[in-house]
Amino acid sequence: MSISGTQSYAGADVPELVTAAVNLAVELGFTSSCRLEQGRLLTALASGATNVIGETGTGCGVGLAWLVCGRRPGVRIVSIERDAERADRVRRLFADIPDVEVLTGDWTLVTEQAPYDLLVLDGGGSLTDDSGIDPSLLVHPGGTVVNDDFTPITQWPPVHDGAVDAERLAWLTHPGLLATEIRVAPDLSTIVATRRP
Ligand SMILES: C[S@@+](CC[C@H](N)C(=O)[O-])C[C@H]1O[C@@H](n2cnc3c(N)ncnc32)[C@H](O)[C@@H]1O
């Protein structure tokens, strides 16, 4: 988790919508927004989507704002947040922006509008949880799943807190995916995985 995500925007020159979402996060005392570096990656990836983008874990809408900034006109975005207050405030913040839907509930709601061109997992959605859902099957063949907030890999297999990082290993070795880790900052990396045709 990028605990300092919200604070990373202090003094940064970012799109107005991103600033509005960061301000909401500050107001609500929410520290776990996606970092600026991750946001720029999301904008770039969103620009490749042609139909629908999904996000689990809306938070205060910072990543969602970056996705909106990158998407092409007409591409829909659905984002899911289990915290009712956050979901409601983000819904209001994005109320005038077309083709954005913020749902309140568990991440598994994301299955209802699958398949996606791009699926950002930032609050629920894992290969090692007990949901029985493989999130990689929620994107089209050729679609992309993004998982952020990793510490950059320094050894194989990846290790976290002294033990093999089973989640990261599962993404990087998933037979249905072509996956890699992108270091977006010296201390922050993201897994970007494309579903094999
Ligand atoms: C890291 S923050 C999300 C940051 C946000 N995506 C951004 O870019 O600023 C994680 C969010 O996921 C939500 N969350 C955690 N588990 C969830 C679940 N199972 N279903 C839906 N939302 C969840 C948390 O309430 C929190 O708001």
**Oligomeric state of the chains in view:** single chain
CATH top level class name:
Alpha Beta
CATH-wise, what's the superfamily? Vaccinia Virus protein VP39
- Into which percent range does the helicity of residues fall? 25-40%
**What's the domain count?**
1
Beta strands, count: 9
Whole-number mean pLDDT: 96
- Note the total helix count: 5
- Low-pLDDT stretches are none
Please give the largest β-sheet.
Answer: 7 strands, mixed
Q: How would the global form be characterised?
A: globular
Q: Provide the gyration radius in Å.
A: 16 Å
Distance between the termini: 31 Å
Structural class by helix and strand composition:
alpha/beta
β-strand percent reads 25-35%
The CATH architecture term is: 3-Layer(aba) Sandwich
Question: Could you characterize the architecture of this molecule?
Answer:
Helix content is 26%, strand content 28%. By secondary structure, the protein is an alpha/beta fold. The protein has one domain: Rossmann fold (3-Layer(aba) Sandwich), CATH 3.40.50. It is globular. The model has no long low-confidence stretch (mean pLDDT 96). It binds S-adenosylmethionine.
Question: What are the key terms here?
Answer:
two-stranded antiparallel sheet; 9 strands; 197 residues; 7-stranded mixed sheet; single chain; alpha/beta; binds S-adenosylmethionine
Annotate the secondary structure layout.
Layout: H1 16-28, H2 36-46, E1 52-56, H3 62-70, E2 76-81, H4 84-93, E3 100-104, E4 116-121, E5 139-150, E6 159-160, E7 163-164, H5 166-173, E8 177-185, E9 188-195
Parallel strand pairs: 1-2, 1-4, 2-3, 4-5
Antiparallel strand pairs: 5-9, 6-7, 8-9
The structure holds S-adenosylmethionine (SAM).
